[in-house]
Amino acid sequence: NNQEQIALPKIPDYQHVFEPRFKEVYPPQEDTYLMVDALSTDLNFLKQINPNICIEIGSGSGCVITHLQKILQPITKSVLYFATDTNPSASLCTQITSQKHNCITDCIQTDLIESLFYRLKGKIDLIIFNPPYVPTDDDEFNQVLSNNSNLCDASWAGGKDGRQVTDRLLEIISEILSEKGALYLIVLQENKPADIVKIMKNKGFVHKTILKSKTPNEILYVIRFSR
Length: 227
Fold this sequence. Notes:
Layout: H1 2-5, H2 30-41, H3 43-49, E1 53-57, H4 63-72, E2 80-85, H5 88-100, E3 106-109, H6 117-120, E4 124-129, H7 138-145, H8 164-176, E5 177-188, H9 193-202, E6 206-214, E7 219-226
Parallel strand pairs: 1-2, 1-4, 2-3, 4-5
Antiparallel strand pairs: 5-7, 6-7
Helix pairs in contact: 2-4
C-alpha cells in the first residue's frame, strides 16, 4: 500500500497569518484541520482520479491548498493549483503559505470561481470548499457583504441555514467539474446535509462522508461528491 509508505506532511506552517497585515484573514480553525485530515484520509481516491486542475474556493490562510499539493507531489505531476478568495489579504496570505512550502499556487481574487469560469468550465478535477456556513439572519448577512464589514466576517457568515454561498456553488457545480471531478465540501449540521446530498444526487453525483467532527457547539462533516 503506497499510502502507508508516504509520510503525510503535517498541516503547513501558517504563523504569518497572525501578522497585523493579515488581521482580516480567517486563521486555521477546527474546520481547516478537518479538511486537511479528510484529504489525507482520502488520498487513495485522489490518486485514482489523478487530478490535473485543482481549486480551493475561499482559501483564507492557504493551508488546505498547500497541504493538498504536499500530499499529491509524490504521486502526480503537471498539476495546476488555483486558490480563489474575495479577500485580497487572503490571496496574499495563501501565496506566502504556498511559497514557504515550495509550492506553486495561482492565487486569484474573485467570487467563487467567477473569473475562471469560462476558461476552466468542465475541466476542474478537484474543488475544495470550506464555505461560510454559520446561519445568520438576512440583515447580518447583508451587512457582512457590505464594504463596511471586516472581510474576515465574510469567511463565516452563511445567511439562511448557512447555505447562501454553498447553494450558489451547487448551482454551477455540474458545469465546472470534469467528468472525473470531485468536490470536497465542509458542511455544518445546521446546513441540512441531507438536503445538500439530495440536490447533488439530482445532478448525478454520489456522496461519501469522509470525516465528521463533533464539538459541544457544532457537528461538522467533510463530504465528497463525485459522479
